Prior knowledge:
Layout: H1 3-21, H2 28-42, H3 47-50, H4 58-63, H5 70-82
Domain G protein gamma: 3-85
Keywords: Cell membrane, Lipoprotein, Membrane, Methylation, Prenylation, Transducer
Subunit structure: G proteins are composed of 3 units; alpha, beta and gamma.
Amino acid sequence: MSGSSNIVAMKKIVQQLRLEAGINRVKVSQAAADLQQFCLQNAQQDPLLTGMSTDITACSVLDNAVPRGPGLRDLHHGLESTQEC
Length: 85
């Protein structure tokens, strides 16, 4: 490796380290506590924990899904072709 390419590589490393140094870090214990609190607060609305009424269709669950990303949209369109939505 030549001297100039070594300098370029070191500058990239320094730039990356500066970027990472500016990231606000959260302790794993705090993140776990926040996640646990979120789960406890939202458990009553989670159909995986509470079950679903038989009058609720898969389409209505997907309509209320958050966030509504491309994957859920594709899944929803797939269900529309096989069920009445």
